[in-house]
Amino acid sequence: MDVTKSNFRSVLEGIDDELEKASFIAIDTEFTGLNDGGSNKLSSLDTPAERYKKVLNGSSEFLVVQFGLSIFTFEKKVSKYVNKTYNFYVFPHTSMGGLCDKKFMSQASSLSFLATQGFDFNKLIKEGIPYLNLLEEEKVKLKLEKRNKFSNVDSKVPCHNNEISEIPPDQKGYVDHIVSKVTTFFESNGNDEEKSPAILEFQCSSLQSELIFSHVRTRYPNLLFVSAKKTCGGCTVTVKKAASSCNLEKESVDKKSLPAAEKPRIEDYMGFSEVVRKITNSGKLVVGHNMLLDLCHILGQFCEPLPEDYEEFKAMTNTFFPRVIDTKVMATTKPFRDLLPNSALGPLLKALLKAPFRNTEIVTAKDFPSYKDDSLKEHEAGYDAFVTGRCLIALTNYLGKLFYASHKAAAVHESSLIAPFYQKIYMMMVTDIPYMTLSGPDLEPSREHIFYVTFPKSWKLHDIFHLFSVHGTVRVDWTGDTSAFVTLHRKENCHFVLSAMNESTLPVGCSVISYETYVNSKHKNVASSQAAEVQEQEPPRKRSGPVMHSNSSALPSPKKSRRDSENPKLNKTQFAVSADWD
Question: What angle do CA 565, 343, 2 make, to 5 degrees?
Fold first, then answer.
């Protein structure tokens, strides 16, 4: 079901009840871009902290424009799921007088891709549901309190607001023009009290409305000024003159007695953020696929600004989403990785619809579109969320059959077999750290077989191969025109590299150091730089996260790697080994 501004409120009213009944929910998002490149380019040697930093710096300016929410409810009596899937279009506020006029980045390739998938950009911009994160909410609250307090001031006396706005230079001409019009209006028939009250109206912005009340209204205590917000943005200021002071007082009282519903409330501005908060409050299992970007964008856009510190990000995620499963982690983990050659979402579903996997029946609720196996809907957030949920059910059923001979279909959220996968988020492209661990320490595999090499700008790939030829085949990950990481295929040869490569044996302009030495040197330089810049600042207060789940034998070993066809190739990365690199 597509959800836009026109039907959002009616959908929102029923979400709480649906989430309460849900066995689990699956989510997916579509973005205006993925990564801005440059120094934020992903590397196969990123640590979880480095990967988060790159996502934070390289992706946070892009927007979620579509949010898929697929709710699965298991009915035990008939052993099947009832599904309700929502496809929310989300877009920033555009009618708040500049208060939340958000700037964002877009990537040509991402927008082009969405267009080829039939994405409706007109619907997004015209009907997209607005939102506020917690920081934006506080700013809007203060603004609304100020405006509501201002609108409650008695109209027949000068403004009592002590924070009378200064006139910006570009608005001075406008204010002078309004003063002139009101003066003419006030002086015309000013002594004829028998006539009906006259009306003068101005179409203006929210800022101009405040200026009128601050700098024009105070000059005419016997005029009634009323400001009304228009649905399409901006304001209408109405100026009235009454036949008598009694009538003027009556109109002023009538204005102040307007029902609270006619005054803007913070709830009117929260928009889609309310959905995310309802998901958080439900405490339900949340499922995604390759979901690091999804989580970062959802948290930053609808919850709170993302923290700089990686450990704080983990704590923040555990606060808002205490039970998360990434089906990409499951699919690339034994026993599944030997059965599923391609863990991209589309191919994964196709594989899971066949033996040896077993699927529980899913029935679409009344008044909701039935996706079934409609691949034409791929990359619609709602459809992808639905597919992600289907994949989790099939993967869980297989684990049940593997561990229990008489296993029958059961609710996913009741299975203890999926507990080892909680709070583990897939690390795309990284060969030896397959996932982030949100609920505890991350994996720290040995990288003693990796070396950081610097060399002259004239060097080519074959020069690096030649330098390491006596130690076997290697992989080269370029970090610049004059540096690269070199990974030995034969890890046992790592102890001979540094002793064989010293100043007397290395070519001129070339150096080789261990990965550990490189990391320590990098951290030392960063620490020194930060100490010089923020010497007088207190360190950020860190939140403590929940206790980590114990690792299961079903999870991949940190020393294992897997080539993933879903991963894009790195620039300037060459492999001098066979496809079964391990």
Answer: 110
**Class of domain 2-131+271-437 as given by CATH:** alpha beta
The two structure tokens encoding residue 557: 């070993």
Regarding the domain delimited by 137-263, which CATH topology (the fold level of the hierarchy) does it fall under? Ribosomal Protein S8; Chain: A, domain 1 (3.30.1370)
Per the model's pLDDT, the better-predicted residue between 491 and 189 turns out to be 491
- Is the per-residue pLDDT at 39 higher than 80? no
pTM of the prediction? 0.72
CA–CA gap between residue 191 and residue 241 (Å, rounded): 11
Which residues in the chain are classed under CATH 3.30.420.10?
2-131+271-437
Six-digit token string for 270: 């929260």
Task: For residue range 80-102, list pLDDT tens digits in order.
Answer: 999 999 999 999 987 765 566 77
All CATH 3.30.1370.50 domain ranges of the chain, comma separated, are: 137-263
Distance, in Å, from the CA atom of 89 to the CA atom of 124, rounded to the nearest integer, reads 6
Contact 399, 418 (CB under 8 A): yes
Which overall architecture, per CATH, does domain 450-557 show?
2-Layer Sandwich (3.30)
Are 380 and 66 in contact by the 8 Å Cβ rule? The answer is: yes
What is the H or E stretch that residue 339 is in?
none
CA-CA distance, 301 to 96, in Å (whole number)?
A: 17
* DSSP-derived pairing of the beta strands 223-229 and 435-437: unpaired
Tokens of 429: 């492209």
The Cα 25–Cα 321 span in angstroms is: 12
* Residue 287, helix vs strand vs coil: strand
SS (H, E, C) 424-463: EEECCCCCCCCEEECCCCCCCCCCCCEEEEECCCCCCHHH
Who contacts 358 (Cβ-Cβ below 8 Å, separation ≥6)?
394, 397, 398, 401, 409
For residue 307, cis peptide bond before it (omega within 30 degrees of 0): no
Size (the chain), residues: 582
The C-alpha angle 58, 61, 64, rounded to 5 degrees, equals: 110
Element (H or E) spanning 204, and its range? strand 198-204
What is the Cα–Cα distance from 286 to 436, expressed in whole angstroms? 16
Contact by Cβ (8 Å): 354, 398? no
The DSSP call for residue 294 is H
Residue 253, token pair as written in the block: 């009282």
Token pair recorded at residue 425: 């988020």
How far, rounded to the nearest angstrom, does the alpha carbon of residue 390 sit from its chain's CA centroid?
23
Residue 10 to residue 98: CA distance in whole angstroms: 28
Question: What are the CA-CA distances from residue 26 to residues 275, 294, 386 (Å)?
Answer: 14, 12, 7
pLDDT score at 402: 85
Q: Give ranges for CATH 3.30.70.330 in the chain.
A: 450-557
